[in-house]
Every structure is written in structure tokens, then in C-alpha cells.
């Protein structure tokens, strides 16, 4: 169980679709070839890293209960790993994918087969690269420059990298950008029919609003968990999140823009341009000009809070919300930014991000391998349960004494325990929303709020009946990565890991690693 104090962000239509049908389990095999391909957007062409030469990559279709084998062969110049975002990896962290956490990356010229089962899940999940900023191209966001060079330049200067040049919908920015004739996604619909849209925010750093001109949407699922249906004119979705909506084609036949742009209620620079696609009724010529939807303002905090309050688990007899009521461990993590000395950086300092004032340092040996084989010196299992020094977390922004400790420090969690995690945003340097993702399992968002968490009063306000279940915080055995899903903040160290100890039973320990696990 967890309490998350961060808001939510999108690409359009899922890559990893977990769709449940009454059928026998099967073995599904896929081949992913990581290769460099020249791609053109916004009148600019450049080589990018792709899967099977496609931008975005291929969709995987499976049924609940299936076994999935994806052989990844790396032909690119970058090391690679693939994360199956939101998939519950029972005893099988080796297939989870984050580089240097559960595996070392797949090196150029090498292959690795991700072998996992789809157990107790159905709906829309997704896959993406989980090393460097390669998620931008292996999944879909556009920079004119080589995104890895952009990141290196920012790191060397100790500053944020340049923002993206466009968001995309299914890899296409739409006709509000130049050279868009071939780069607009069009979805044809028939009058009177209802359509299920699988929406994924694959952007690296932006929460996004999404709306369709003239059409409401009924939200029915988030993060592969059914919701109590509700109708809305727009949705808000954070990096890493998925949302399924129903759309009725019940308007005057025509062409209607589907549009997305960022939500940002902090004084920070963002790529605030609008990416678009077109919902087009069958038989309507392309010469008809589409109409734009009325998206919320980019700083519309009221809409964001109202929308997130509407998200409730379906909690039906068939799909109950089994909220744990007895808490075994209480964790309180503060989220903040910091500045450390960097003589070679532009201003003599570099920006960092931290949990409990610890900025995570990536190891050179995968944490799960170090845990399984008892390799010493890779990590310290002493991550603090609470911040070292309490302060007024959400007062006026603090800009002095911003030094941050660094280290590869993780938290040990007892097998089958229930953990309550409070994520407290802070005023260190600036205030910003952070969508957190925990690998391997799910969490219940039992409460959110503005300001400082009050342990004496706030727990009484928890929703323990039908809170939204998302892919963050209840943890199975193994080593599981938790990080901000804003790629910028992850690179600055806003991450940690949980080492979940083995249980007493024969099926309550981590499985041995596969023979083709990439070497470090």
C-alpha cells in the first residue's frame, strides 16, 4: 500500500497489449532486432535506434496466462535493455529489464531472451528501452539532435538537457508542425460504433493532457487495472502510465483533432506545443479541416486534482481491490533536488535529485546478480526509512545548503510484508510533480494531498475501500527498482531499489538466472 504525492503523463495505442480472453494459455515468441535507421520528422532526418526498423516499435498481443519469449538482438552501437513496464514478474526479476538493476545490458552483437508469464493481468501495458535516454527513440519522442549527445552535453555542463522538439502520437507529431504531410496519425471510425483507445504516455519528461474535439471519453482502465467508469472531456496521464478509454463515434461525421500537450504548474520550461492526430469518420474526404479540442490550460492544477480524484478501482466481486489493512513497515521518502560541486561544469555545480537526500549511484554489476550470488561491495542495504533531517517540506523554496549524498543504497524488505510508503515532495530548489514507478508489482494509491504529510491526521483520510491500483509499491521477492519516470530526474539520481528477502517456501525465492543472461 502506498501514498503517492505526484501527478500523472502519453503516446497513443499500446505496444504491449495484455488482453484477456477465455482461451488456453499459449507460448508467444517475438524477435526484436535493435537497429539504427534513418528517420525524418519536422523536416529533419537523423539516424535513431529502433526495434525492427520501426518508430514506434511493434505491438505485442498476448492473453492472460500466456508465456512470452522475446529474443532481443542488439545490432546498434549502444548497449540495450528492454523493460516490460507494469508486468508482474513473480520470482523472475531477470526478465524485468532495467540495466544494471536486474541485468547488465545487451552489448552490441549479442542477444538475450526475455522469458516471462502473464499472470493475473489483462489490459494495456507497454515495453520500452531502459538504459540511457534510448526510450525516446525505441518508443517515440522527437529531438532534432542525437538524444544521447543532448544528454551528455547537459550532464557535462551540470544542467538540464535541451527539451524535445516535439511530442508525437504513434510516432507522428501531426499537422501543426512543419513537413507533416506523411507524419500525421489518422484513426478512421464509423458513425454509431464505440472504440477502445489504449493510451500510453511514453514521453520522457512530461505529464500530458489528451482530448478529442467534440467527443467525451469514458475511462475504464489504468495501468492494466479496471476502474469505476467515468466520463471526461480530457485525461491527464504521466510518463509510464497507461489509460484505456471508450469513445463513441456519435458526432456529426467529419474530421476531429486528437490533441496532447504538457501539464506543468511549476515555473519550469517545457515543450508546450500541441501534438495532434485525426479522428476521421468513414467517407469524409481529407479536404475537410479538423477542429481542435479545448485542452485544459497547461497550469490547470484544479483539473489535475479533480481528474485524479475520480480514479477508483472497479472493486467488483470478480475484480476486487484487496487493500492490505495491516501495515508491517512504514516508509517516508522525501523527493528533492540538490547541487553538488562540479569544477568542470558550467557553473561549478551539477544538479542532482534524491530520495531522503540520497542520490542513487548506478552500479557496474546488476543489483539482482549481486543479491543472488552474494557479491559484496555492489550496494549497501541501509537506505533510511525516513529523511535524515525533518524540515518544512513545502514552504518557500530552499536554495542554500543543497549538497546531496550519493551512493548505491537500497532498502531490505521482508518477504510477503505490507509496506506503506509516503512520498513527500519538497521545496528543495524548486517544486515539481514526480510520477513514480515501482518495477515488478503494483500499489494502491490510498491518499494524496497538498502540503506536508501529517502522520497524526492524514491516515484517517485514506481510501481503503476502492483506491486505484497502479504499478508501484507492493513488492515480491527479488530486487525491484523504484524511480521517478521523468527520465531527466532518473538520470539525476531520483531512484532506489528494494531488495525483497526470500520466503520460507520452495516457490518463494528468486529463480536461478537464465543461461543467456548478459555478462557485466
Key features of this structure:
520 residues, mainly beta, 5-stranded mixed β-sheet, disordered N terminus
Task: Please describe the topology of this protein.
Layout: E1 2-3, E2 11-12, E3 16-18, E4 27-41, E5 44-51, E6 60-62, E7 67-74, E8 82-85, E9 111-117, E10 123-129, H1 135-140, H2 147-157, E11 186-189, E12 194-200, E13 207-212, E14 217-222, E15 225-232, E16 234-237, E17 242-248, E18 255-263, E19 275-281, H3 301-309, E20 329-341, E21 349-355, E22 358-360, H4 367-372, E23 405-407, E24 411-413, E25 419-425, E26 436-438, E27 443-445, E28 468-470, E29 478-484, H5 487-491, E30 495-500
Parallel strand pairs: 1-25, 3-6, 4-7, 11-19, 20-25, 22-23, 24-30
Antiparallel strand pairs: 2-12, 3-10, 4-5, 7-9, 8-10, 12-17, 13-16, 13-18, 14-15, 14-17, 18-19, 20-21, 26-29, 27-28, 29-30
Task: Give a written overview of the molecule.
By secondary structure, this protein is mainly beta. It is 7% helix and 34% strand. It contains 5 helices and 30 strands. It has a 5-stranded antiparallel β-sheet, with no helix packed on it. It has a 5-stranded mixed β-sheet with strand order 11-19-18-13-16, with helices on one face. Strands 1-25-20-21 form a 4-stranded mixed β-sheet. The longest helix is centred in the first third of the chain and has 11 residues. It is globular, with a radius of gyration of 22 Å. The two termini are 34 Å apart. The N terminus is likely disordered. It catalyses: 4 hydroquinone + O2 = 4 benzosemiquinone + 2 H2O. InterPro entries: Cu-oxidase_2nd, Cu-oxidase_C, Cu-oxidase_fam, Cu_oxidase_CS, Cu_oxidase_Cu_BS, Cupredoxin, CuRO_1_LCC, CuRO_2_LCC. Its cofactor is Cu cation. GO terms for molecular function: copper ion binding; hydroquinone:oxygen oxidoreductase activity. Its main location: secreted.
